[in-house]
Amino acid sequence: MTTDARAVLVFPSLDRGAHGRVAATLDRSSGLLTPARTTWRRRPVVADGRALLWFSVRRRGVDLSLERFRGLRRATVPLVRVRRKHQASQSAALLLELATEVERRGVRDEWKVVATLRDQARWLEEGGDLRRSPLKALPRQHVLLDLLSIPTP
Fold it and tell me: How far apart are CA 80 and CA 57, in angstroms?
């Protein structure tokens, strides 16, 4: 456990009733992304050259997913949540720190993610609407599952 608060990036949960719950943490010294809730597939993942990084885009929000071992180990960070009566996003400063850390670690496909994270941070600093933000403009995945309201892994 580190005593320096800057050594760990803490990502708060973006759900309406979260009330300060932590969704995930990223240890800057080791590169370990640790989700708050774990399952047999959703577990801590080290951000390095063997990990794959992408945006998981669904109807109600966008997550950043970090995966290793061909999908057998995955950690996600909520970035944006947009619902009818609730909108939330990680702060612009946190998104910029995340982009810098991902770029420094050399994760596979990081160039796609880093540019979009920085665009989102700039959008938030300028006071843009979350519904029209760069992250929400990404093409959705699992459209059929969204229509059926089946949760995706």
Answer: 10
